[in-house]
Amino acid sequence: MKNIAVSVLTLLLSTLSSVCDAQAIPNKHLKECSLKGRTILVTAPENYSVRLCDAIKKKGGKPIPLSTIETTINPDDSAILEVLQNQNKYGWVALSSRKAIDAFCGCAIKHRYSIDSLKVCTMGKDTEYMQQQYRVKAAITPKEPSPEGIVKALATIPGTNGQTIAVVAPNIENLTEPDVIPNFLSRLKDIGMEPVKIEGYITRPTTAHSKKEIEALFHKRRIDAIIFSSATEAEGLAKLVGGNDQLNTVMVACFGPYTAANVKKMGVKVAFVGTNYSSFEAFVDELCTFINHQN
């Protein structure tokens, strides 16, 4: 009986070891995944592109930061001031981008308003940024880092029905407005809230790059992929190169499904859509695996 027990135990340990080894393969693959020799064009504004480029470098890739849009704080802060002066009316504020955080919190500091009575919604890493830069804690940071994630989180909170929520959004100049914010406002209405759009910052095509400079990147240097974190970046790049033809000669990667949907509407082929877009590091991990599997 003793020999049988030993044999059974040995078999179980061997089986367990095999299972553990099999489960370790994906993690090992992700850890060893490399972007060495890959050149990736990053079109995000500077406040995002720095972190995205760092994530690419950590994987051995060569990022080319080339912001195709610029975002600036709206000099007319009267709409934000109206929210700050009537905090008893606005129970909630949605800040769905870093620039929205800068616009709203910066205005509060400038005009010496406390926002302690407001419940603020943010997404992903921007929650940490807001707390570190402005010492403001988010009331909601949804698991899904998207406007729809905010809607789903708000829908689970009792008492939000009928409450007014200020949505700090961009004023889009000389670009097509993606449907992200309009859909966000519509979905907030669906759960019984009363959204008010506040144009806290401005998004416009950049004037920092010439068409000749951009075309040289496509003709003289091999670009393995372009990363778009918003559809406005894709449109901004298309304007710089004179259309979508150049964009469709390179692998296009989008930060998430909402960006991808709007980029596809432009007629641009999207090869990769991130499913883990809670951070740039997670996105680049996925992209790295995808690119390596193409070979």
UniProtKB/TrEMBL annotation:
Q: Name one GO biological process term.
A: tetrapyrrole biosynthetic process
Q: Which InterPro entries match?
A: 4pyrrol_syn_uPrphyn_synt_sf, 4pyrrol_synth_uPrphyn_synth
Where does the signal sequence lie?
Answer: 1-22
Ranges where the Tetrapyrrole biosynthesis uroporphyrinogen III synthase domain occurs: 54-277
Q: Which GO terms describe its molecular function?
A: uroporphyrinogen-III synthase activity
Query: Which Pfam families does this chain map to?
Result: HEM4
Q: Which Gene3D superfamilies match?
A: 3.40.50.10090
Entry annotated with the keyword Transport: no
UniProtKB keywords: Signal
Q: Does the keyword Isomerase apply?
A: no
Q: Could you identify this protein by its name? A: Uroporphyrinogen-III synthase
